[in-house]
């Protein structure tokens, strides 16, 4: 009997793993958004009949399936471009995925530990609230990894209407409420409580109708006249990007592409387009600045910068030409741009050959750059994945900008995921977003999160289009995390109170 029970548990773990794999298909580039409802619903179903400990392991297997298929590209950057041996790269990637899998694992444990009863409040209130709270914790714990948040999967569904109100976490909550309603309906159907089933289906449809109605609200309005921008996609292969032998050809390529678009008002190069510290590229930058001024153009480019006072290096964006400004990166990539616990891990990191892997983070408050009189909230690479960092940039901005170099992840799904995350930030903020990448995806995103125009991937190209800056505030900008956190706490408190009332009724019946 013990062997049979053990087999059933293992089979359930495998089913949880499969459900986690399915969830990846809900995100870009696949965008099968209904799976974001069905996959967590299947996990919740697997959690209902088991102990907190068993729920922990089922959640962990679910996490292995989900993160193993959604962020596998970490291996590519570590092995292919970091030059780490396959066993070491596999060990680091596997350890990273195993740690991320702890979030759904603790979700299952906490849910069944504190809400053991199988009722609607547990499924529709507690389950979504715990999940979203853990997503929020994942976004800042140990510098955070807010990648593939559940709400990011709903860019093409009516549920995206909640984003300008509660941010991506509000969209996650709406998705998970639908998952809970679905499981509750199935449970009532098995019990023959068909009136409750109809009530659940009505609630399910209502959530979608409300989300769809919210998409018709225009939260921001035009600011000034449209401006013409040119986004330069240099398409420099990652394996030669930092090679001294390819420095001049790289600079020549960007110059040639730029000189054909001096009719634009703003020209933007991607992250580290100039693969040379600013103090070593003074003559080139001065020449570029002079040309841009002559054509009354503001040119924005990524470049490493060293502070004279400290000698620290920063991943930076500078503005030259008709406008001048600079931005220093706040959220660095662990192991890619800095080494956590350097005394312990630096000997291991010497095995890698990663340029700019000893950078310093800007600890000041995020400040938008000002270009042609327009305030642009600027972010480098995966900084755009941090909802709270983006919303902290201010409410008087006209547009958003992300410069990146996703060539680190090869021909994986990382670039599409990155773009989808940027689309969610544009939707939350009600601002157009310029997404400039070295090899792609380079795109212009509308304030409603939809793609306005896009350059071909892995091609040398310049994307030129007209962009309308916007002004005004979404509710997300006004409230940030406060509103969604209060809502999550209320859901948990209501479930706790309901659970206590049930216990009192049970005691009264026993008496």
Structural key phrases:
16 helices; Nitrilase/N-carbamoyl-D-aminoacid amidohydrolase; six-stranded mixed sheet; 2 domains; alpha/beta; 511 residues; 14% strand
What can you tell me about this protein's structure?
The strands form 3 sheets. Strands 6-5-4-3-2-13 form a 6-stranded mixed beta sheet. A 6-stranded mixed beta sheet has the order 7-8-9-10-11-12, covered by helices on one side. The protein has 511 residues and is an alpha/beta fold. A hairpin with a 5-residue loop joins β11 and β12 (451-454). The chain has helices at residues 2-24, 35-47, 52-70, 74-81, 86-100, 102-114, 120-138, 163-191, 194-214, 247-259, 282-294, 342-349, 387-391, 414-429, 475-479, 481-510, and strands at residues 221-222, 227-233, 266-268, 298-306, 313-321, 325-328, 369-371, 374-380, 399-404, 433-437, 443-445, 451-454, 461-467, 470-471. It has 2 domains: 2-217 and 492-510; 221-478, Carbon-nitrogen hydrolase (Nitrilase/N-carbamoyl-D-aminoacid amidohydrolase), CATH 3.60.110.10. Helices cover 49% and strands 14% of the residues. The chain has 16 helices and 14 strands.
């Amino acid at each position: 009997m013990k062997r049979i029970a053990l087999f059933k548990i293992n089979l359930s773990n495998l089913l949880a793993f499969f459900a986690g794999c399915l969830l990846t298909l809900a995100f870009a580039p696949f965008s099968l958004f209904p799976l974001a409802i069905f996959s967590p619903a299947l996990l919740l179903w697997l959690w209902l009949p088991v102990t907190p400990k068993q729920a922990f392991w089922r959640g962990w297997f679910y996490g292995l399936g989900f993160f193993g298929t959604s962020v596998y590209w970490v291996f590519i950057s570590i092995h292919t471009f970091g030059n780490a041996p396959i066993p070491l790269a596999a060990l680091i990637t596997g350890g990273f995925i195993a740690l991320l899998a702890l979030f759904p694992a603790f979700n299952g444990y906490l849910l069944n530990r504190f809400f053991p009863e199988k009722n609607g409040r547990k499924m529709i209130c507690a389950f979504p609230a715990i999940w979203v709270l853990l997503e929020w914790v994942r976004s800042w714990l140990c510098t955070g990894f807010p990648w593939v948040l559940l709400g990011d999967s709903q860019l093409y569904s009516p549920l995206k209407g909640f984003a300008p109100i509660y941010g991506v976490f509000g969209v996650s909550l709406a998705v998970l409420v639908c998952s809970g309603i679905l499981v509750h309906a199935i449970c009532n159907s098995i019990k023959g409580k068909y009136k409750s089933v109809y009530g659940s289906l009505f609630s399910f449809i209502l959530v979608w109708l409300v989300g769809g109605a919210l998409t018709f609200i225009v939260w921001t309005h035009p600011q000034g006249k449209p401006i013409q921008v040119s986004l330069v996609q240099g398409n420099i292969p990652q394996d030669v990007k930092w090679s001294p032998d390819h420095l001049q050809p790289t600079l020549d390529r960007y110059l040639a592409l730029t000189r054909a678009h001096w009719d634009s008002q703003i020209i933007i190069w991607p992250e580290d387009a100039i693969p040379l510290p600013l103090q070593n590229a003074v003559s080139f930058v001065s020449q570029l600045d002079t040309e841009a001024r002559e054509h009354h153009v503001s040119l924005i480019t990524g470049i490493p910068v060293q502070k004279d006072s400290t000698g620290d290096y920063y991943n930076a964006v500078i503005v030259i030409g008709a406008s001048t400004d600079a931005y220093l990166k706040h959220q660095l990539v662990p192991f890619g741009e800095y080494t956590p616990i350097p005394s312990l891990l630096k000997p291991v990191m010497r095995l890698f050959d990663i340029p700019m892997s000893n950078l310093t983070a800007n600890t000041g408050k995020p400040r938008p750059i000002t270009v042609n009189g327009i305030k642009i909230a600027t972010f480098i690479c995966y900084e755009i994945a941090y909802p709270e960092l983006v919303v902290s940039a201010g409410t008087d901005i006209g547009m958003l900008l992300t410069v990146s170099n996703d060539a680190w992840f090869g021909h994986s799904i990382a670039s599409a995921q990155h773009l989808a995350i940027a689309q969610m930030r544009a939707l939350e903020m009600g601002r157009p977003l310029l997404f400039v990448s070295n090899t792609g995806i380079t795109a212009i995103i509308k304030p409603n999160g939809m793609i306005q125009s896009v350059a071909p991937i892995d091609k040398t190209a310049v994307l030129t289009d007209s962009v309308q800056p916007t002004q005004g505030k979404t509710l997300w900008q006004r409230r940030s995390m406060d509103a969604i956190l209060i809502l999550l706490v209320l859901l948990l408190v209501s479930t706790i109170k309901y659970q206590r009332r049930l216990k009192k009724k049970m005691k009264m019946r026993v008496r």
